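Researcher: Quick test of sequence recovery. Tokens follow.
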């Protein structure tokens, strides 16, 4: 799928989690619901770090473009070193390493560890990166026509404000993990969910997605998971633009209302 659909799916997924928790009698604080949805929307773009033409490659100028090139080569190297007998030869690393459940878990765990050990500036950095990505994904047309600096300023300002809101007692810095020194440990959860939503979205397209790696399926270690080929669609097709994106908007909106109703 394309960047906007990925971001919408990520935001809708986190709002869905919020609605489910509220229905179960344990609602999220509203700042966690909002911040988590934005982080998840941004994280849903991150697996395309292996693609030099993806939305994320433009998000931070030369830095993100260079990083995408490095991740592409790293992913290709891992693919070549681990491919099974049934896996085809590839010329690049797109839809390999960064499109797996293992990558999603490791990135989320790393973000949680950084948030806990790095203090406020680490939290601000995590928020800034994902809020910029959320703007690029959710407001893609406005972001493309505006200055990158304005997008970065919006991300930095939003990160500062939202971190201040979360820091207030009862607003969610210690949500889900209330032990001493565990503030913001939950930040990795929307990152994992966003990455997995990206993989699920790509699995619906023609090429599928090797989300199960390194678990082998038959003779393939990089098995392209997906529905029957007759049910798949091309990225950017009318199915994505006219069906899935409106569905994500509606489901996200209903889930958000459901989650807030119990707060």
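Model:
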């Amino acid at each position: 799928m394309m960047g906007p659909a990925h971001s919408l799916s990520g935001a809708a997924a986190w709002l869905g989690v919020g609605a489910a928790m509220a229905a179960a009698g344990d609602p999220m604080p509203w700042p966690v619901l909002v911040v988590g949805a934005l982080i998840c929307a941004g994280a849903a773009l991150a697996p395309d770090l292996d693609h030099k033409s993806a939305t994320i490659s433009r998000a931070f100028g030369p830095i993100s473009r260079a990083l995408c090139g490095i991740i592409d080569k790293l992913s290709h190297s891992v693919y070549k070193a681990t491919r099974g007998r049934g896996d085809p030869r590839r010329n690049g690393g797109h839809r390999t390493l960064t499109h797996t459940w293992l990558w999603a878990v490791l990135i989320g765990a790393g973000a949680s560890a950084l948030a806990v050990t790095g203090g406020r500036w680490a939290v601000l950095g995590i928020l800034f990166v994902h809020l910029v990505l959320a703007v690029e994904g959710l407001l893609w047309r406005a972001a493309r026509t505006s200055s990158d600096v304005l997008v970065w300023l919006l991300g930095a300002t939003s990160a500062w404000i939202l971190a201040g809101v979360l820091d207030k007692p009862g607003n969610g810095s210690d949500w889900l993990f209330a032990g001493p020194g565990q503030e913001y440990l939950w930040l990795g959860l929307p990152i994992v969910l966003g990455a997995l939503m990206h993989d699920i979205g790509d699995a619906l397209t023609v090429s599928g997605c090797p989300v199960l790696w390194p678990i082998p399926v038959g003779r393939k270690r990089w098995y392209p998971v997906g529905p029957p080929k007759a049910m798949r669609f091309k990225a950017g097709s009318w199915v994505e633009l006219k069906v899935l994106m409106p569905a994500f908007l509606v489901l996200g909106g209903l889930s958000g209302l459901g989650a807030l109703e119990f707060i």
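Residues 101-138 form the longest helix (38 residues).
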